[in-house]
């Protein structure tokens, strides 16, 4: 009887399982890198005049009939606000001077008692407060009401 060799064959460096695992890990890594590179977290730029800071409701958002409509302007400007073609009287505008915010909330006894369902648009017309006529402008945005 011959002697049986007890020397084991060294493990194979490349097996089907190792190759498949390496390929899958590589594809996953490349996919994650691609996803991070494609992600754009910058704010969606909406073209608006330099004088206009914030508007609410957000353009194209869905709102209730009694929602507050406001605009915040650069401190150098003053404004009037119109909703669906109806100018809001100055005595119905709520003005927060520190924020230079002009707002209107529909209600009983006001120029607009509630917003109609569907698409509604607001327009702010502004000019420099210290020197009227120096830098006039306007900005229009629309939103939806349920």
Description:
This protein has 1 helix and 9 strands, in the order H-E-E-E-E-E-E-E-E-E. The strands form 2 sheets. A 5-stranded mixed sheet has the order 2-9-8-4-5, with no helix packed on it. It has a domain of 94 residues: Immunoglobulin-like. The N and C termini lie far apart (94 Å). The protein has 146 residues and is α+β, with helices and mostly antiparallel strands. The protein is elongated and about 110 Å long.
Distance between the termini: 94 Å
Rg, alpha carbons: 31 Å
Under the CATH scheme, which class of the domain at 52-145? Mainly Beta
Strand content: 25-35%
CATH architecture tag of the domain at 52-145: Sandwich
Helix content: 10-25%
Instruction: Report the count of strand segments.
Output: 9
**Low-pLDDT sequence parts:** none
Global outline: elongated
The third-level CATH topology of the domain at 52-145 is: Immunoglobulin-like
**Biggest sheet architecture:** 5 strands, mixed
Mean pLDDT across residues: 88
> What string gives the helices and strands in order?
HEEEEEEEEE
Task: Spell out the key features of this protein.
alpha+beta, 146 residues, 9 strands, elongated, Immunoglobulin-like, five-stranded mixed sheet, 1 helix
Report a brief summary of the structure.
The chain is of the alpha+beta class. The chain has one helix and nine strands. The strands form two sheets. The protein has a five-stranded mixed β-sheet with strand order 2-9-8-4-5, with no helix packed on it.
